[in-house]
Each structure stands twice: as structure tokens, then as C-alpha cells.
Amino acid sequence: MICVFFSHPRVRELGVGLRGIRDSAWTILLAASLCGIAILVAAKMGTLTLLYGSKPVYWHSIFYAIWALEQQFILNSFFYKRFESLMGDTAIAVVVTATLFALVHIPNPVLVPATFVGGLFFVAVFRRWRNIYPLAIAHAMFGLTLAITIPDRWLHHMRVGLGFFRFHIHG
Fold first, then answer.
1. pLDDT digits (tens, 9 = 90+) for 67-97
2. Helices (H), the chain
3. Mean pLDDT calculated for residue range 49-67
4. Phi, psi for residue 25 in degrees, rounded to 5
5. What does the domain layout of the chain look like in residue ranges?
6. How many other CB atoms sit within 10 Å of the CB of residue 152?
7. Residue 51 phi, psi (nearest 5)
8. Which residues does residue 56 pair with via DSSP β-bridges, in sequence order?
9. Which end of the chain is more exposed for a tag (fewer CB within 10 A), N or C?
């Protein structure tokens, strides 16, 4: 984050201003629709849970929303901006950024493909409208929906790296 601010970027470039919020707000509606469908499917399949571990999911929701905002800043305001400056405003920069986003979620077999697809979506939207706030809300919605619809034996509490291998299902 310090690196970003020492480069003296404009607020518009980072996507942290007000510009572009209205134009990219549709991402929240799309996320709500897709999450609603996933929740209905999980309820029908019996995989829906309103617990995350042993705690209600709403407690994690607040912290995950903050983490989603941080991830969008890192993904778009830091990495995509740099890949864009190296490669130009191209689809290649979008794919490279999304690939990096997916790679940091290794070895989680649910999160790697989900973050690649999500990364493509988030970066493409950021590329067009340059605002991370609606993306962070959509990201939080998608992540929380995964947490309550995918069994923990596959998701491992959304852990990545070595933490993925240290996960144990209790009970």
C-alpha cells in the first residue's frame, strides 16, 4: 500500500473516489442474483449452512467485507494498474491480473477457479469504470455465499497455502 501512495496516483486511477460508482453498481445486483440462486440450490441440496465453523456467519461478514475491499484494492489498484502500464489497456493485462489472483489461492480447489473467474470479472469492470467499492461489495457477497453453500470439507474455511493443509473438520 505504501508503494501505491509513493507513486502519487490520482484517486480516479486507484478507483477509490466516487466516480464510477453509479455506472458499476449493476455488479452488486448481479452478485445478489447469482448469490440468491446459489443459496437456493444449496438449500435444495442440503449444503446450506448459516454457520461458519462454530460461529454465526454474520460475525465473519463484517470482517470479510473489509477484507474484500482490501483484496479489490490489491487486485485492481495495485496489480492491474501496474500490468496495465506494462502491457497497455489490453485484455492480456486483465487475464494476467486474474491469473495472479487465482494463483495466490492455491491449493484450494474451490477458490482457485472461483477467483480466476471472479478476477476476470472484477478486473474487467474496474478497467471500464475504475471504482473498487461496488466490486468489493460483490466480492464480499460471492465469498460469503461460497462460505455458506460449499461444504467445509471442500472449502477448508477458505484457507489457502499451508493453512489449507492444516485444516481439520471438527465434530
1. 999 999 999 999 999 999 999 989 999 999 9
2. 2-6, 11-14, 21-24, 26-45, 57-72, 81-87, 91-103, 111-129, 133-149, 152-155, 162-165
3. 78
4. -65, -20
5. 19-160
6. 17
7. -110, 145
8. 51
9. C
